[in-house]
Amino acid sequence: MGDSARPCFDHNTLSKIKLDIQSPLVLDILGKRVKEERAALMTKASVIWPNDSVFRYIKEAVIEKGKLAIKHVNKLLDMTQDDYESKINDIENMSPK
After folding, report:
1. Which residues pair with 19 in a beta bridge?
2. DSSP assignment, residue 49?
3. Does residue 24 have a cis bond before it (omega within 30 degrees)?
4. Which domain of life is it from (predicted)?
5. pTM (predicted TM-score)
6. Using alpha carbons only, what angle is made at residue 93 by residues 89 and 97, rounded to the nearest 5 degrees?
7. Which of 46, 17, 18, 16 has its CA nearest to residue 34?
8. Where are the domains of the chain?
9. Distance CA 91, CA 56 (A)
């Protein structure tokens, strides 16, 4: 086997989209819940986007912050769905059923 090359996806080098976080509420939530992004968020309020960890934790984490935070996060997720829904559907249609 040795040094055989295998395909590898490195999202840090291939993902060029960064989401700049303007909402202090969302930034606080992400800093607490998405541990692998905490250091990056402390230096610059942005994350690679789309980000699986953000999707995974943000909806449940925002509840403790109240109605305004929920509105901010729902808007963010709505914009994401608008931008990526067709791409997600394309991926789903590629897989055999």
Report:
1. 47
2. S
3. no
4. Eukaryota
5. 0.50
6. 135
7. 46
8. 14-94
9. 19
